[in-house]
Amino acid sequence: MDRLGLRQQLQNYRTPYEEESAFIADFSELTHDPLGYKREQLEGHFTASAWIVNKSRTHTLLTLHRKLGRWLQLGGHADGNENLIEVALKEAEEESGLTSLELVDSTIFDLDKHIIPERPHVKEHFHFDVRYLFEADINEPLIISDESVSLAWITFDSVVDMIGYNPSILRMLEKTSKSEILL
């Protein structure tokens, strides 16, 4: 899926979450900017994430992000790749070592626009994160990458205790619980 496919998905994307729907127009606008897929776009750029759950939908895989010091879903920069599903899959494989990842649906699972704090040599900027739902084998060994301090399969019931208050992760957790009903 290229930027035209993403633009079409964004036009069709509906969410009952006000905080998520508030920035759909910003995501659509960014698809028109060829630099929007590159981290050189200093105001903000696309990233892609994999919300990974086990097949029985009782656990999610989270990483303790080395630079941010927070538990998050796996993902990263598009680095020029307009196919954000490919980006999410590549980042998840690199950051976890998993080979059993399966895309549940090629449509957008979640969107989040969030600020990345300033660091040496990188000014404060926005990540326009497009998230996709993946399933994986919870028994497959994990390999921690340089980007993580730790990786863990967290039970849905323990996510809040592990991450504290992170509305975008809580939203994805809620969506996963709702989608389980539909399966």
Q: Could you give a quick summary of the protein structure above?
A:
By secondary structure, the protein is α+β, with helices and mostly antiparallel strands. It is 30% helix and 29% strand. The chain has a domain at 3-59 and 73-139: Alpha-Beta Complex (Nucleoside Triphosphate Pyrophosphohydrolase).
Number of helices: 6
Q: Give me the CATH superfamily of the domain at 3-59 and 73-139.
A: Nucleoside Triphosphate Pyrophosphohydrolase
Morphology call: globular
**CATH architecture term of the domain at 3-59 and 73-139:** Alpha-Beta Complex
Question: What low-confidence regions span 5 or more consecutive residues with pLDDT below 50?
Answer: none
- CATH fold descriptor of the domain at 3-59 and 73-139: Nucleoside Triphosphate Pyrophosphohydrolase
Mean pLDDT: 92
CATH class of the domain at 3-59 and 73-139 equals Alpha Beta
Q: How is the quaternary structure best described?
A: single chain
* Biggest sheet record: 5 strands, mixed
The count of β-strands is 8
SSE arrangement, N to C: HHHEEEEHEEEEHH
Using the CA coordinates, give the radius of gyration. 15 Å
Helix/sheet category: alpha+beta
Helix residue percentage: 25-40%
Characterization of the model:
By secondary structure, the protein is an alpha+beta fold. The protein has a domain at 3-59 and 73-139: Nucleoside Triphosphate Pyrophosphohydrolase, CATH 3.90.79. Helix content is 30%, strand content 29%. The chain is built from six helices and eight strands; from the N terminus they run H-H-H-E-E-E-E-H-E-E-E-E-H-H. The protein has helices spanning 3-12, 18-21, 24-30, 84-96, 159-163, 167-182, and strands at 44-54, 59-65, 71-72, 74-77, 102-103, 110-116, 125-136, 148-155. Strands 1, 4, 5, 6 and 7 form a five-stranded mixed sheet that branches. Helix 1 packs antiparallel against helix 3 (24-30). It is globular and about 40 Å long. The mean pLDDT is 92. It comes from Algoriphagus alkaliphilus. InterPro entries: NUDIX_hydrolase-like_dom_sf (IPR015797), NUDIX_hydrolase_dom (IPR000086).
